[in-house]
Amino acid sequence: MAEKNENVQPGDDEQLITLVDDKGNEELYKVLFTFDSEDYGKSYVLLYPESASDDEEVDIQAFSFTPDDNGDASQGNLFPIEDDDEWDMVEEVLNTFLADDDDAE
């Protein structure tokens, strides 16, 4: 069961993370939001490309992470999500976040 969104923290516009792909290419990402899951005992971060324009459809990257001293995510402590049930929970939180964001506009 997905968590309620009281733990969802919108990303700080200044919070950027560099991801490196399998070929060694670096791309800068902005934090969309972070949230905690009591069910999985983890924190999660959702990212989108920094270069994306507002009207562009983008691929959102999701990772679990170990918060740093400020409670933020950094590229050194991101972990892939490999469990299907965990992915389903993350997608449900993302869909709720996007629906709430559409309602706010």
Report on this model:
- With 105 residues, the protein is an alpha+beta fold.
- The protein has one domain (10-104).
- The protein is 20% helix and 32% strand.
- The longest helix has 21 residues, at 84-104.
- The termini are far apart.
- Mean pLDDT is 82; it is low at 1-8.
Quick synopsis:
With 105 residues, the protein is α+β, with helices and mostly antiparallel strands. Helix content is 20%, strand content 32%.
Keywords:
alpha+beta; 20% helix; 6 strands; single chain; UPF0473 protein ACFQ41_10690; 105 residues; UPF0473; disordered N terminus
Biggest β-sheet strands, sense, barrel? 6 strands, antiparallel
Strand content: 25-35%
Q: How large is the count of helical segments? A: 1
Q: Number of domains in the coordinates?
A: 1
End-to-end C-alpha gap = 28 Å
Uncertain regions spanning at least 5 consecutive residues: 1-8
Helix fraction? 10-25%
Rg, nearest Å = 13 Å
The 3D shape can be described as: globular
Tell me how many strands there are: 6
- Could you say which structural class the secondary elements and strand pairing correspond to? alpha+beta
Order of helices and strands: EEEEEEH
Averaging pLDDT over every residue, what do you get? 82
Topology:
Blueprint: E1 9-10, E2 16-20, E3 26-37, E4 42-49, E5 61-65, E6 78-79, H1 84-104
Antiparallel strand pairs: 1-3, 2-3, 3-4, 4-5, 5-6
